[in-house]
Prior knowledge:
- The structure holds two protein chains of two kinds.
- Chain A has helices at 32-50, 123-134, 188-205; strands spanning 8-13, 17-23, 55-57, 61-67, 76-86, 90-99, 102-116, 157-159, 162-168, 216-224, 233-243, 247-256, 259-269.
- By secondary structure, chain A is an alpha+beta fold.
- In chain A, strands 1, 2, 3, 4, 5, 6, 7, 8, 9, 10, 11, 12 and 13 form a 13-stranded antiparallel sheet that branches.
- In chain A, a hairpin with a 2-residue loop joins strand 12 and strand 13 (259-269).
- The mean pLDDT of chain A is 89.
- A two-stranded antiparallel sheet of chain B has the order 1-2.
- The longest helix of chain B has 19 residues, at 9-27.
Amino acid sequence: MRFxxxxxxxxxxxxxxxxxxxxxxxxxxxxxCLIAEAIGQLAGWIAMERWQFNARPxxxxxxxxxxxxxxxxGESVELAVEMDECEADAVSYAGRARADGRTLVTVERCxxxxxxxxxxxxxxxxxxxxxxxxxxxxxxxxxxxxxxVTLPWSEITYDWNSAKAxxxxxxxxxxxxxxxxRRPVFPATLSLDAMIRLARALAEHVGLKLAATPPLIRVSxxxxxxxxxxxxxxxxxxxxxxxxxxxxxxxxxxxxxxxxVATADLRFEWN
Amino acid sequence: xxxTSSITRxxxxxxxxxxxxxxxxxxxxxxxxxxxxxxxxxxxxxxSIDLLDIVFRLERAFKIKLPRNRIVKDARGExxxxxxxxxxxxxxxxxxxxxxxxxxxxxxxxxxxxRVDDVPRLFTVETFCKLVARAQLEQSSA
Lengths: 271, 142
């Protein structure tokens, strides 16, 4: 499979901003976290180009992410990113994804350290792909985005206002062909997607009517603390902190071998 | 709190409440735990990604820019890189200069052999107060 979520870059201001697109599969709805991944990958192209493909950002912090909706099968998702900082050692940025005039996802206060690119990718291959993305035809590849979210889940266990589940990150090499060729890392956005799925399950378990009205999802203070390698067991947890008539606040975490891997706060809001 | 040649105690104390708040938020700690002398890593449990988070939060809270390698660069001062460190380890002169710069850090926290990469292990809450105060001073005089 491929884990590339930018098909072309239409507008580009070095070190500053970019606009791009990616095509949704015709038979499958890509989860919103992977639309956020697409925004992050577009920011990554700005940062890598700025530093001559010597370094690349690796996702670490998301101050705020609002998931307002999903793209429809076959839609073209328009991506836009603006860098707040594009330094040699770290970047920060904001971005959004829209489709057919609807805002799907916005991210703000995203931050990532810049790490040596050649620890993760082939420098020339990245240069070539960037050139293709900037070409009039773009660099569309056959992407099986469905595979990206087919994760084995354990049974969810509930205890009062909390829920737990376990996932084991895939070991197939193909899964990591793009993330990353030289250092396979389970994508942090998939960890986040799994945590949000657990939060939804908990919300429904405690009687919140999420299915009737798709809620607005606000995810904040996402912190991805460590790389997750293939075959690692992730223990996911969601805890319902508070519920009001039109919102619920949850704390999310992923741990592995008693070490925190990722943490986030989440709010569901519905009418 | 300690003094530096250019940053007065008043300036450090003025920024401390917001600095402590930003650090507490980044580390999911109570603000009362973030005392000026608290070691960011040893006492408050920060990891490297937390340091980046703290810097971003301080930049937003104070509307300033804080280059990540600022402390080491400033501490080095007019020393050349070779005078300051050798193969990633601080020289005696470099270590002395850093100790002078990080005057808020107790002497017993400075190991005999100190790698440049390990300098953040010395940071306290007050280190970030000084960093912010210095950036504010530079911004106002720019």
